[in-house]
Design a protein that fits this description.
CATH topology of the largest domain: Rossmann fold
GO molecular function, one term: ATP binding
Strand content: 15-25%
CATH architecture of the largest domain: 3-Layer(aba) Sandwich
Shape: elongated
Radius of gyration: 24 Å
Number of domains: 2
CATH class of the largest domain: Alpha Beta
Organism: Cetobacterium ceti
Largest sheet: 7 strands, antiparallel
Structural class: alpha/beta
Order of helices and strands: EHEHEHHEHEHHHHEEHEEHEEHE
Helix content: 25-40%
CATH superfamily of the largest domain: HUPs
Distance between the termini: 52 Å
Protein name: tRNA-specific 2-thiouridylase
Number of strands: 12
Keywords: ATP-binding, Nucleotide-binding
Pfam family, one: NFACT-R_2
Strand order of the largest sheet: 11-10-8-9-7-6-12
Length: 332
Amino acid sequence: MKALALFSGGLDSALAIKVVKDQGIEVIALNFVSHFFGGKNEKAEKMAEQLGVQLEYVDFSKAHTEMMKQPVHGRGKNMNPCIDCHGLMFKIAGELLEKYGASFIISGEVLGQRPMSQNYQALEKVKGLNAGLEDLIVRPLSAKLLPPSLPEREGWIDRNRLLDIQGRSRKTQMELVEEYGIVDYPTPGGGCLLTDPAYSMRLRVLENDGYLEDDYAFLFHLLKVGRFFRFEKGRYLFVGREKADNDRIDSFKDLGSVYIRSKDVPGPHILGYGDLTEEEIKFGAELFSRYSKVKGKESVVLLINGESVELEPVDLDKLEENSQKYLIAMNN
């Protein structure tokens, strides 16, 4: 008997796997990858190794982005369509059952842990999005509080050995960690950028401008770094704050219209997107000067799309005024 597990790499999904695996059922862990969560990472791989399960990455980013446009059950407080997102993951896992020779699907959801997306009605709505599959979904951590699934009714899995965890307290999970000897687990918390208010504010700008499309996914990733400025619809600047930001900007520089940096002065790498005006490009150059080693107070030689341009000291008061007008704040 095999089961597929929705596996984030977090504690709850790990405990769900352990509960089922201890019944002699082989579990294959599916880590779903979107533009906003999941993906190859050392912590998930170490946890899968610790649990002794096969880990598979499932890229559903295109389908996920499409679902985000009009989620059937709406969004949470931010840009997170949690019910529809979970439903989509179960749907794709269902399509993979035959490939892996598995008979049912498990997840680490806990009844009442998240009041909006993991209450009883929400868990049932997730199943309702998957006609024909709903009876093959098992939630081992709260199974005793939920209607018996087919695997439980048929004896594929012993319902008496499943759990009855509910609520936001993680006391029981911590006890199970000790009991099972699980070590080096991540701190509880969401790993989805769509639940982050600041990131969601930026993403809504793209949505309102008509760019919530998979073809523009590189913009979703650029929103994760540094400072973000919007002039008009489809005209943006992305400004690095640290080396990791600069590296991310460099990786997408061929998709932008303007690329600004300096060979001689340490400072942010800047990527412009869209048909920027000369004034907007100059604004980007002045931002480089302001956030570089010279702090806007000295002349600096920039490379703008590879061409050397000398920039005089900038009017910092005017630059600050324009910055506040165009900046979409996230940790500014």
